[in-house]
Specification:
Layout (H helix, E strand, L loop, with lengths): L3 E6 L6 H15 L5 E6 L5 H8 L4 E5 L16 H5 L4 E4 L2 H7 L3 H13 L3 E6 L3 H5 L3 H12 L11 E5 L13 H20 L1 H6 L2 E4 L7 H5 L6 E4 L6 H21 L1
Parallel strand pairs: 1-2, 1-8, 2-3, 3-4, 4-5, 5-6, 6-7, 7-8
Helix pairs in contact: 1-2, 1-11, 5-7, 7-8
2-phosphoglycolic acid binds next to strand 8.
Length: about 260
């Protein structure tokens, strides 16, 4: 039976006060859903407040990025151990980091290793741009991002890794990939690469989230696909009812999975 993982990435939105209000609205809607892993990533400064607010709710809190060096003269950066002191997981390689802040597959890999070393769970984001998609390069790009991003990661470490497939053209555009197209990338490209690197048993357990314009309306159809194991949600995670709607869709599909198996 699948256990879906739905994570809300709040990006650079919400002050601490606004984050508290949003979480106050969200938690009652999420109460009682215990068959889905639920998480949010606020800005660094709001992480402690959200950890406090989500304590004993089952909602995990994570950071949106970290730096690979342990300490030192790196103004503005936050080290893995500093993130791990406060919360449980981190996102690395988001396309906005790649686009605006010079993130490469190599730096994704360095961040991932630093995060795993201190015991964080990690969501590794990959996904092709519109130009790459239109040029038929989706499989090639995803393969390169995954191979280089996960280089040197062991089967045991992979237990803490989730992959988020986020086609760049689908992020924040209202134009989600079709469930079939997303599933094809998950099933035919990503999962086989995970099998090759980590073996079948581990690869089967690893969650592959889809991200890019996921809404409460399209979530059920996405989660019904064989290899879509959750979602990384941007815009829709900034509204309590739409995020809760996505989590509920995952919960319902998980219940249907259980009945079917
Ligand atoms: P979106 O963002 O849901 O607003 O498209 C997804 C993401 O960037 O993770």
């Amino acid at each position: 039976m699948r256990r879906f993982f739905v994570a809300g990435n709040w990006k650079m939105n919400k002050t601490i006060a606004e984050a508290r209000d949003l979480m106050n609205a969200m938690l009652p809607l999420l109460a009682g859903i215990d068959n889905v892993d639920i998480a949010i990533t606020p800005v660094y400064l709001a992480v402690p407040a959200m950890v406090e607010q989500c304590r004993s709710t089952g909602v995990k809190v994570g950071a949106q990025n970290l730096f690979w060096e342990a300490s030192g003269a790196y103004t503005g950066e936050v080290a893995a151990a500093m993130v791990a002191e406060v919360c449980d997981f981190v996102i690395v390689g988001h396309s906005e980091r790649r686009k605006y802040f010079g993130e490469t597959d190599e730096t994704v890999n360095r961040r991932l290793k630093a995060a795993l070393e201190v015991g964080l769970e990690v969501i590794v984001c990959i996904g092709e741009t519109l130009e790459e998609n239109e040029a038929g390069l989706t499989a090639a790009v995803v393969t390169r991002q995954l191979t280089e991003g996960l280089a040197g990661i062991t089967e045991a470490q992979a237990a803490a890794v989730t992959i988020a497939y986020e086609p760049v053209w689908a992020i924040g555009t209202g134009r989600a990939a079709t469930p079939e197209d997303a599933n094809r990338v998950h099933r035919d490209v990503i999962r086989p690469l995970l099998v090759a690197q980590f073996g079948e048993a581990r690869a089967e357990q690893m969650r592959i989230q889809y991200g890019g314009s996921v809404t409460a309306e399209n979530a059920h159809e996405l989660f019904s696909m064989s290899d879509i194991d959750g979602a990384l949600v941007g815009g829709a995670s900034l509204k309590a009812d739409s995020f809760a709607g996505i989590v509920k869709a995952a919960s319902l599909v998980a219940i249907a999975d259980r009945r079917a198996s």
